[in-house]
Amino acid sequence: MNTATLDRDRFVQNNITTQLNYLATHLEQMRSLILINADLEVINLMRESRYYIEWIVPQLVGINVEVSAELVDFGRVLTRWLYDWEKLRANINSRCEVAQIAAGFCDRIREISSMA
How many structural domains does the chain have? Predict the structure, then answer.
């Protein structure tokens, strides 16, 4: 059993609101760390956030398909950022844009969690 499986077991024991709040917290941290060039931490938060989305969506799809699709789309954005991180991190404007988008997703996820 790997660490992700252990974390998943604990994570999915929480209610959907708590899970969404964990994801939002990751995005807040990611936004802050992007702006101070803490690349390793940012990459780890992006990866963990993708896991969170993967674990949240199956539970959320029965409640709200549209919101589930939003989360899946955001997971794709995270994957693109991870793939392009070397280019993104080298350009301050790109870093700021990623931080701004992460903040917007964080706000949206907080909004979703308040409705869950």
Answer: 1
